[in-house]
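Blinded run. Sample ID left blank on purpose so nobody reads anything into the name before looking at the predicted structure. Input follows.
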Amino acid sequence: MADYPHPLIAREGWPFVAGSLAAALLVWWGAGLAWSAPLWLVAIFVVQFFRDPPRAVPAQANAVLAPADGRIVKVEDARDPYTARDALLISVFMNVFNVHSNRSPVDATVQRVEYSAGKFINADLDKASTENERNAMVLQLDSGERITVVQVAGLIARRILCYVKAGDRLARGQRYGFIRFGSRVDVYLPRTARPRVAVGDKVYATETILAEL
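Blinded prediction complete.
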């Protein structure tokens, strides 16, 4: 996996930011500020969507960190379809105003990455976990425990990006992927994990502790 110096604007957004700013400037120069105002609003939205600020990593050794910014929509017992085991499922829903950079919740080795094509229904719905386009990453901790992190596309999202493969080593808080324009991340934890969040809570990638192992 190739890493890169951490930008304030995610590299995935550079073409979108450049294009929206160029369009706003061209209309401004050609037709004036009034005509270009809607395009400046679009440019501002694009910049805020692709912002990617650095995050502080909690020092707590047994913490499972949030892999994404957003709102908790699930904390429940479930079946992890990628490891065929009972698990604690915590789901984070990201709207278009959240940071969409995805980060590793733990120090671990990537055991498997599995992409599944699918639909693009509202990621806030339960069936999005099994019917939408998604990309699952099974992580194995040094203790032998496994955690599954699933990037789920949403109603508007049309591109899941994952930059890791089996055998890669990830550090807590390390950037591993991105989902464009609204989505969700499901985290399947061992049943013995103790949740530190509840449905409705706002969380921030890396900085919020989802659970304790």
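Unblinding after everyone has recorded impressions. The chain has two domains: 11-49, 63-212.
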